[in-house]
Write a structure and sequence with these properties.
By secondary structure, the chain is an alpha+beta fold. It contains 16 helices and 14 strands. The chain has helices spanning 6-14, 37-50, 56-59, 80-97, 106-125, 129-143, 279-315, 324-346, 360-370, 373-385, 387-390, 397-400, 406-413, 421-435, 450-460, 463-473, and strands at 20-22, 25-27, 60-62, 69-71, 147-150, 173-178, 181-192, 199-202, 217-222, 228-232, 255-266, 270-273, 349-350, 356-357. The strands form 4 sheets. The chain has a 6-stranded mixed sheet with strand order 2-1-10-11-7-6, with no helix packed on it. The model has no long low-confidence stretch (mean pLDDT 93).
Length: 488
């Protein structure tokens, strides 16, 4: 089948065992339930784009295994063009949906990371992980699978290593190794797009030592694997997701806690089992690519914020050009993170298994920009939109439609005779959703904290080398080393 249609995608989700909960209720059908249907709709638009001649170049590729046309998020990123296409797809998806689409993002990165790392493990440890991964990848390509990626563990006490935790399930770990597979337990948290995914790709959440070897596990599991309970988390303004009308868009993202309880994973789905010394390389490769590509995510949403600001201005009776300086600032912010990410990719190279790895220094520097610039873009969007879009002072859809006073609300909200009160309300709600509510992606901590990124930047910046350039330019002949630390 390779290329899947929207209809086939929705059918594949309906075929999964219900194991997702939210607000205390088991969700029977993620494609129709009010709390999950919006994230499903977001991901469905990736299938629409794959089958649209206008966008198929960025949303499809050719399998390096079978030569067939496949969804791009199921392919390997083996060249610079391949990984740049990752960023293009992400920016398009944010333009189409206004928010994160983790099922066509994180799992894609995870499988490419493991394509490199399994090559090294097989060579040095005599394992056959790469062949297992290849078979799984080909199967995903043939089925057009949507794969969420799960890296972050619950972690527990941050001052203790995983093996020291009072609760061993604070990190996903191997409980038992059997001849035919492994049994895993533990919790992954803040995992995006699970409700819209067919599979979940698990990676170790950190670099581990020998005493933590049980936590060194990488595998792919069906979203409905026995023993997995998925708890969808609440996002700001979630209360409106049960409403009708324009109080919330038709798209959205969900994030989840994944609670694994004695889940059996067969060998053919296991790509790391206690090889702890390679976990650091997984984190290095994953963060380099992810933090390069995430610049496209915030740029894509920034594009929509420029559009929302322009709509609000026009509906308020003003030309969008009135705010040209502000929209230019927003555009600069968007292009800064997007281009910084592309630069990190261009400075990278092929990894040991043939998958592309972005430059870590530039990628982590980009993460710092991603954690700062979008907030300025949101502020500018709010400035242009005015109080109706920023203060939360807008009557609900139900109030607009109330038979007794709804017509009075409409008259109060309408600003310009050319445009309806409904148009103004929709534009205001979109602005609110993008800048204050559930549409806000995790720009601060999504993909890792900016403080963590700064640690990498600090470690990779050759201050001594730069000081030597400056010393020579200044004509200083003697060495000027760091002073010795004083003993206290």
């Amino acid at each position: 089948m390779a290329l899947k249609t929207r209809k086939e995608y929705l059918e594949s989700l309906r075929a999964l065992r219900p194991n997702i909960y939210k607000f205390g209720n088991l969700i029977q059908d993620v494609t129709t339930d009010p709390v999950t249907r919006r994230t499903v709709e977001s991901h469905a638009r990736a299938f629409d784009a794959s089958n649209d001649p206008q966008y198929e170049h960025d949303f499809t590729t050719t399998s390096s295994f079978t030569g067939e046309k496949i969804h791009r998020w199921n392919g390997l990123m083996e060249t610079l063009d391949d990984i740049i296409a990752n960023s293009k797809l992400k920016r398009w998806m944010f333009r189409f949906t206004g928010t994160c689409n983790g099922g066509v993002c994180v799992g894609w990165n995870a499988q490419n990371v493991m394509w490199n790392v399994t090559a090294v493990m097989d060579k040095e440890c005599g394992t056959n992980y790469r062949e297992r991964l290849k078979k799984w990848l080909v199967d995903c390509q043939e089925r057009g699978t949507v794969v969420a990626g799960a890296l972050t563990d619950a972690k527990g006490d941050r001052s203790l290593r995983p093996s020291q935790q009072a609760n061993p399930d604070s990190h996903v770990h191997i409980k038992e190794v059997r001849p035919e597979g492994v049994v895993i337990s533990g919790v992954k948290t803040m995992i995006a797009g699970v409700a819209a995914s067919n599979e979940i790709f698990l990676l170790p959440g950190s670099a581990y030592r020998e005493q933590d070897q049980d936590y060194a596990v990488a595998c792919a599991v069906p979203r409905d694997i026995e023993g997995l309970t998925v708890v969808e988390t609440r996002r700001p303004s979630d209360g409106r997701e049960l409403d009708q009308g324009w109080d919330i868009p038709d798209t959205g993202i969900t994030q989840a806690y994944l609670i694994f309880q004695d889940c059996f994973v067969p060998n053919e789905r296991v790509f790391m089992c206690r090889e702890f010394k390679y976990t650091g390389k997984i984190i290095e490769h994953f963060t380099a690519n992810y933090r390069a590509c995430i610049g496209a995510c915030v740029a894509g949403q920034g594009d929509v914020m420029i559009g929302a600001a322009a709509l609000m201005a026009r509906i308020n009776g003003l030309a969008a050009d009135t705010f040209a300086n502000k929209t230019a600032e927003m555009a600069v912010n968007n292009e800064a993170t997007y281009a910084m990410g592309i630069g990190a990719m261009a400075l990278g190279n092929k990894g040991p298994g043939g998958a592309w790895v972005s430059d870590s220094l530039a990628a982590h520097a980009n993460k710092v920009l991603v954690a700062t610039l979008p907030y300025e873009t949101k502020r500018l969007c709010q400035e242009i939109g005015g109080g109706i879009a920023e203060t939360g002072c807008l009557p609900s859809y139900q109030d607009f439609k109330n038979p007794e006073y709804g017509h009075l609300v409409e008259k109060a909200v309408q600003a310009c005779d050319k445009f309806s009160a409904e148009a103004r309300a929709r534009a205001a709600r979109l602005t609110e959703w993008l800048t204050l509510g559930a549409g806000v992606p995790g720009t601060m901590h999504g993909g890792g904290s900016p403080d963590g990124a700064k640690l990498v930047v600090r470690a990779l910046t050759p201050v001594n080398e730069f000081a030597d350039y400056a010393r020579k330019l200044a004509g200083i002949t003697g060495e000027i080393p760091e002073p010795e630390k004083k003993k206290r």
